[in-house]
Amino acid sequence: MPPRTRTLSAAAVAAVLALGTSLLAATVPPAGAAQPQSAAVTDHCQGRCADILPPGENGNATLVEILGNKAFGTHPAHSDDQLDRYNGLVAGHTNLTDQKLTDFFNDASFGVAADQVESVISPREDVTITRDKKSGVPHIKGTTRYGTEFGAGFAAGQDRLWLMDLFRHIGRGQLTSFAGGALANQGLEQQFWPQAPYTEADLEAQVERIRTTEGARGEQAMADAQAYTDGINAYREKAKKGRYFPGEYVLTGKIDAVTNVGEIQPFKLTDLISIASVVGGQFGGGGGGEVQAALSLLAAQQRYGVEEGTRVWESFRQRNDPEAVLTVHDGTSFPYAGKPDTARGTALPDPGTVTAEPLVYDRTGAAGTNRKDPVEAPARLAPAQGMYDDGVVPEGTLPGSGDGAAKRGMSNALLVSGEHTASGNPIAVMGPQTGYFAPQLMMLQELQGPGISARGVSFAGVGMYVQMGRGQDYAWSATSAAQDITDTYAVELCEPDGSAPTKNSTHYRAHGACTAMEKLERTNSWKPTVADSTAEGSYRMQVWRTDYGIVTHRATVGGTPVAYTSLRTTYRHEADSIIGFQLFNDPAYVIDAASFQQAAARIDYAFNWFYADSRTAAFYNSGMNPVRAAGVDPALPVKAEKAYEWQGFDPAANTADYTPFAAHPHSSGQDYYISWNNRQAKDYATAAFGFGAVHRGDLLDDRVAALVADGGVTRASLTRAMAEAAVTDLRGEQLLPELLKVIRSRPVTDPELNAVVQQLDSWRAAGAQRKETGEGSHRYTHADAVRIMDAWWPELIEAEFRPGLGDGLYSAFTASLATDESPAASHGPSGAHSGSAFQYGWWGFADKDLRQVLGQRVEGPLARTYCGDGDLGACRDALLTTLKKAAAVPAAAVYPGDDSCGAGDQWCTDAIVHRPLGGIGHRTIHWQNRPTYQQVVEFTSHR
């Protein structure tokens, strides 16, 4: 398929051609003669399925198109045509009707109407790829299974070739060698590779394991993956020969623009495992962080003594908070990973002995620096010079990357059962919240072939099947669950000659034997290119692998040297979940909610799965939840001894006994379901701090509960609830009422300060939204109140808690949970301009503490009352002092500006920026705390 380029003005065409003619002649690959065929399936959605994935389907751009974008702002066709619809919902949701939904979403019906066909190609005789005029989504129809999957791979190459290449190198820890040595690239591979370090033999073993141990489904999955890989490679070869390959290969020095000399390395099955390790590990992981948890526990015990300190720590840890918002809210209990009555095998470090394991060695040149040495590039390439100087992925914008990175909670879902809808059919508004990139990490596609019938999204490079989307009469989606599937072990160090070990020893005791750790290494080097001016450099990454996982820290426990290791149940099983995705796409398998839940149980990563057909809304929590030894506390490090291992643990393949289907939170037919990465169910303990009385899930739960109480829910009303929550400040809606109660417990006598209080109250009464005065105004309606809250929140939290906790414990707790993650808090786990907000913060702590001060009923209270040491007057004084200080902070200080925004630009600081992973950039859009890919579905009938 030829590059898809938007129609330009004559002047722009002439300019782009002048830039590009001397570089390459983008010949058009021949199109097949196949014509679109009507789908041989019944679409039970009957026009009531919609979806959206900004900025656009097309994620590839030739060198000419990149230069045109840099110089003139032009865009390849279908690279940004979903952006305005997505952005438009901010202003358009208030008057939304079912009939207006397609103003803001794509029609997600199967097939393409004859008058909407933009192009048809047939890369093989057994498959056609039809693209529609409106969005350019590939509708892949195969007459054979191989052809269908080959077509999926070919379409992935058309839409995401450069992105797939980036991610296989990120997964392999080779990003700098591939794309350049920018400091952010160094940081990114240093963040990701230690989480899933593999040799090539390890990756091959994972492919073979699926093929040989998963029966016919496993054999079919690997055959499908091979066909998909073949399709990618077929497009790779055609694009290279035809000179319409992504221009980033030229700008990073892989291919010469004039001679076409160079190569795009072939894809292989192990690349898919590598990509899966990045995707699954970041969005479907859970647990870990036990060393930091141990440090905060020690700080609490040092502050208050062992017994009281432990009680204080547990009250902040909130493993099973009775006030937390739940997805399964009917009271059903699913006990997992709770605090044992009497802990066994806990391995707390001796105070002051913990050191992080070094990762980087043998730096040369620009390694560890941001030193630049620009190449002398031809003038015609000047528009793209240095486009990767800040990295292919700016630091902190990819989940799990950046300083102090946390596993980012992602995605939301709102489902209402048929008894509460206007039609009598369940309705769902749902999707993954995966950040904003250009192109997106996912791509839309429709797959129709033997045993496959689905439309939706797949992560680029692992798109053999639709991972979230719709089938013939059902739809499904997921949110990150983050239950605890990762544990930290303390392995006792030893020396093979029997001498005394030190913290630096590289042998450990495994079932009594002094065993050598396995050293895994990755050496990278780079030179400056047109795209990345970072000076020449190199370094070596090194990790130590044990039977109990990867070494992350070293310490002493009771004076004995140990290494702390991190062991994830899905390590060495990065792609095993392919079986579950295969089942999702198989219309012969998924016939109702129960069969869907069984398919979801084959997903090893920690996800919350949601399902809707014309009869039932349902939920299932997936993940390889290990069966832990009795008495083991999963929130803290545990001794690496047989008695405390996972039950049935086999280190050779990293397998164990896992909790059965029935033990995972699941439900069918509940009145409604919401998820915004909140807790799943009663007694299903959290794997991290921050799941208490206030959570961003409350923004959805309160609204959907009200809709259900009124009855007659429609697709539009449920979408409005989501869209309203997407522009609401959690602090303003959930915390400000309590803050004002404390402040107004006595009259505010300072006129200026009272005016500030009234401003905040007016904002609260208007819905506490961060929303423009009018579409395109780029100014918030309650701009001063928003500014004051942004300046006040970190100050008030510190004033509320630091005096009582003390500096050491307050710092330890903030290391486990950041105090704030507003859209403007670019220091948060999501980074700046990323949309996702209010997942991590001290909202729940503040809520309980303020209610305790006010004398209100609190279930699961904090062990102590901190604001004003429990005195209402003193608490009020602390709040007013910090509020007065915050009100005086100018906008330029609250919003200091960055590469995208000037200082003081509040709207822009919040706004979403699609971070370019390739050479094409996009305009900034209004902030929304909303799924990146989103479906609105209501099926009217069933097979």
Question: How would you describe the overall organization of this protein?
Answer:
β14 and β15 form a beta hairpin. The chain is globular, with a radius of gyration of 27 Å. It is built from 23 helices and 30 strands. Helices cover 32% and strands 17% of the residues. The strands form 5 sheets. A 10-stranded mixed sheet has the order 3-4-5-12-13-14-15-23-24-26, with helices on one face. Strands 7, 8, 16, 17, 18, 19, 20, 21, 22 and 25 form a 10-stranded mixed sheet that branches. Strands 2-1-30-10-9-27 form a 6-stranded antiparallel sheet, with helices on one face. The chain has 943 residues and is of the alpha+beta class.
Characteristic key phrases:
17% strand, 32% helix, 10-stranded mixed sheet, single chain, 943 residues, disordered N terminus, alpha+beta
| Strand residue content | 15-25%
Gyration radius from CA atoms, angstroms: 27 Å
Shape: globular
The major pleated sheet works out as:
10 strands, mixed
- Helix and strand content put the structural class at alpha+beta
**Considering DSSP H and I runs of 4 or more, what fraction of the residues is helical?**
25-40%
Helix segment tally: 23
Query: How are the strands of the biggest sheet laid out side by side?
Result: 3-4-5-12-13-14-15-23-24-26
The residue-averaged pLDDT reads 93
Could you tell me the number of beta strands?
30
Distance between the termini: 36 Å
Poorly predicted runs: 1-39, 401-407
